[in-house]
Amino acid sequence: MILPIVAFGDPVLRQETNEIDQDYPKLNELIENMKQTMHNAPGVGLAAPQIGLPIRLFVVDTESIYEDEKGKEDQGIQKVFINPIITEEWGKIWDFEEGCLSIPGIREKVKRQRNIKIEYYDENFILKEEAFDGLNARVIQHEYDHIEGVLFTDHLGGMKKRRLQRKLRSISKGDIDIAYKMRFPKK
Q1: How far is CA 47 from CA 2, 50, 99, in A?
Q2: What mean pLDDT is predicted for residues 75-94?
Q3: Rounded Cα gap, residues 164 and 142, in angstroms
Q4: 69 and 35 in contact (C-beta within 8 Å)?
Q5: How far apart are CA 39 and CA 47, in angstroms?
């Protein structure tokens, strides 16, 4: 089932999230719904707060990023991250343009480190520890920020933030034209 994506301005996007256990109600159904919602939007990542749930869960699918790059088709990932903890970030800091399904129509360059190590449970509640780099690491960092109550716009400098205020207000009011289901903050 495709779920509405929560728009900028909704308090759940700034809320502290809670860990879940393998007995979380209808977890497999929730994960499948999140994947469908992400692909429908279309996005490469979706965190639970973006569908209104303050829990430590996100899904990532970066295969589409790499499918057109010859020799790199197999570098994308499709993963579920439950109760993740980024344990290490290292490497060159690089700028890359990011967007967000909760903040449609806005894309800005964000600085992030190139490499991460993350501990998480997969959809079968098997504990994993993996390292990621490049765009995979960036998407994971972006989604991880969501479960920490951080948006990509928080990484921007003061002038850029001020320049975006009118657009952000329009998004929070629902004054936007978007091709996927969204839920806007109550007035």
Answers
A1: 14, 5, 14
A2: 96
A3: 19
A4: no
A5: 13
Q: How far apart are CA 58 and CA 81, in angstroms?
A: 5
**Is residue 5 classed as helix, strand or coil in its secondary structure?**
strand
Taking the complete model, does pTM exceed 0.90, yes or no?
Answer: yes
Cα end-to-end span (Å), the chain: 27
Is 60 exceeded by the pLDDT of residue 65? yes
Bridge partners of 132?
A: 116
Model pLDDT, residue 68: 64
Q: Which residues pair with 115 in a beta bridge?
A: 90, 133
Closest CA to 49 of 15, 85, 83, 2: 15
Lowest mean pLDDT among 52-61, 66-75, 145-154: 66-75
Active-site residue set = 143
Degrees (nearest 5) of the Cα angle 166, 171, 172?
Answer: 100
Point out which residues pair with 110 in neighbouring strands. 96
Q: At residue 69, does pLDDT exceed 70? A: no
Provide the sign of the torsion angle of the four alpha carbons 22, 12, 111, 139, taken in this order.
positive
Where do we find the tokens 């657009």? 167
